[in-house]
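[recover] target loaded
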């Protein structure tokens, strides 16, 4: 896949699902009443979601599952959540993840 094809495919998929992604982003944790920071991006290899600034790992799991139901992400990562430093893979297309 070249850059133009990746742009058309992934940008279109993100744009078509922007309202659903917005709702997921605004979903508040039932325990802490906080939402996550969510960044979606893509490159030639696929489309990715990065969950940042979340209050707890349980809410990150709920958000990750909801994201997988909307778009077939190649990877969903959790960054700097609830005291975790670095990046944790929540999901990878090949089945690896938390």
């Amino acid at each position: 896949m070249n850059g133009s094809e990746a742009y058309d495919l992934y940008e279109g998929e993100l744009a078509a699902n922007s309202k659903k992604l917005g709702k997921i982003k605004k979903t508040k944790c039932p325990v802490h009443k906080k939402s996550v920071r969510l960044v979606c991006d893509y490159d030639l290899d696929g489309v990715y979601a990065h969950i940042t600034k979340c209050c707890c790992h349980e809410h990150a799991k709920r958000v990750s599952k909801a994201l997988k139901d909307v778009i077939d992400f190649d990877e969903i990562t959790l960054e700097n959540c609830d005291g975790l430093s670095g990046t944790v893979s929540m999901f990878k297309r090949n089945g690896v993840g938390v």
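[recover] notes: The chain has a mean pLDDT of 84.
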